[in-house]
Amino acid sequence: MELYIYMYKECDPKKCTANKLVEKGKAKRLLKKRELISDGVCLTPFAEKALSPEDKTIVEKGGIRAVDCTWSDPLPKIPSSKNGRALPYILATNPVNFGKPLRLTTAEALSASLYILGEKEEARALMTNFRWGEKFLEINKEPLERYSRAKNSTEVVEIQRDYL
Predict the structure, then answer these.
(1) Which residue, among 82, 130, 81, has the nearest Cα to 110 in the 3D structure?
(2) Which of 50, 54, 61, 148 is the most exposed place for a label (fewest CB within 10 A)?
C-alpha cells in the first residue's frame, strides 16, 4: 500500500517521523496540498467517518495520505475530501506524547491505518524504523485488532466507545 505525506515542516527535522519515512523510501512526499484529496484515503481529524477495513479498496487504488504537522490550535487548513477518514482511539508511544490518546506521530498514524486495514506486517515493518515503534503496536494491540475486525466505520466507532 502506498503511503503519502504532505509536510508542513513545523517540527524538528531530526525528530520528524515523516521525514524519516520519506528518507527511507517508506512513504512519498506530496508537493501540493491538493494532492491530499486524490483517490486514496486522507487521514484527518475532521472526517465524519472513521477508518475501517471497508476502506481497503480505496487505499489499494490511491494509498493513504497523511499530513505531517502539529495538531494544535489553530489546526492547519486541510482540504476536505470525500475519502477523509479519522483514526479511532489509539495511544501514542512516541517520546513526546507517550500514553496520550490520539497524539500520534505521522508514523504512528500510518502504522495504525495499515493495521486497521489488515496490513499488520506492513504496519510492523513501518514501526521498525523507530526505537519505540514496537511498543506502539504492543500497547495498542487489543484496540487495533478489534478495529481491524470491524466491518465498517460504524462498528469502529462502537468499538472506540468501549475505550472512551
Answers:
(1) 130
(2) 61
Amino acid code (one letter) for 74: P
**136 residue type, one letter:** F
Listed residue (67, 63, 62) closest to 6, CA to CA = 67
Residue with the three cell numbers 504512528: 108
DSSP letter assigned to residue 14: T
C-alpha–C-alpha distance, residues 38 and 141, integer Å? 30
Domain ranges for the chain, please list them. Answer: 3-163
pTM: 0.90
CB 116 within 8 A of CB 160: no
111 neighbors 127 (Cβ within 8 angstroms): yes
> What gap in Å lies between CA 143 and CA 83, rounded to an integer?
23
Q: What's the grid cell of residue 119?
A: 496490513
Q: Which residues contact 40 (CB under 8 A, 6 or more apart)?
A: 2, 4, 58, 59, 61, 62, 63, 64, 65, 83
Each residue's pLDDT, cut to its tens digit, for the chain (164 residues) gives: 999 998 876 676 677 888 899 999 999 998 876 676 678 898 887 788 999 999 999 999 999 998 886 555 445 556 566 788 999 999 999 988 898 887 898 999 999 999 999 999 999 999 999 999 999 999 999 999 999 999 999 999 999 999 88
